[in-house]
Amino acid sequence: MTIQLDDPGMAYPITGGHDARDRLRYRLFSKASVRVERSPSMRPLRNIIFGDWPNWEEHLQWVIKARVAEIVLWAKQIQRDCEGCGNGSN
Questions:
Q1: Considering Cα of 54, then 57, then 59, then 60, what sign does the dihedral take?
Q2: Euclidean distance between the first and the last CA atom of the chain, given in angstroms as a whole number
Q3: Residue 52 has pLDDT above 80, yes or no
Q4: What are phi and psi of 8, to 5 degrees?
Q5: Are 37 and 43 in contact (CB under 8 A)?
Q6: Residue 25 φ then ψ, to 5°
Q7: ∠ CA 52-31-2, rounded to 5°
Q8: Where are the alpha helices (DSSP H) in 1-90?
């Protein structure tokens, strides 16, 4: 199964049920996704929040539990650090 957010270029491969780890990832992603989508300040940063981060399960737990302000500050810093990334201007 693939879960897709609004951006058609951003698909998150989440397997829902093959083994315990897949089920954990699916539950964590679902909880994190609901939280981000319900937050007007996090929603515009969802492509950063749900990027390909190491320690995915820990990252999702952080997104579920951390203060919104902390997540927003982190995501905006990533955004600033990556200005121009991927468009050949580096």
A1: positive
A2: 35
A3: yes
A4: -65, -15
A5: yes
A6: -60, -40
A7: 50
A8: 20-38, 46-49, 56-65, 68-81
Read off the tokens for 18: 């093959």
Place of tokens 């982190």: 74
Q: Are 18 and 47 in contact (CB under 8 A)?
A: no
pLDDT digits (tens, 9 = 90+) for 4-50: 444 444 445 554 557 888 888 899 999 999 999 999 999 999 999 99
pTM score: 0.72
Encoded tokens for 34: 């609901």
Look up tokens 């951003």; give the residue. 10
Question: How far apart, in whole angstroms, are the C-alpha atoms of residue 27 and residue 33?
Answer: 10
Token look-up 């992603």 returns 29
Residues 6 or more apart in contact with residue 29 via CB below 8 angstroms: 3, 12, 14, 60
Q: What is the pLDDT of residues 3-17, one digit of tens each?
A: 444 444 444 555 455
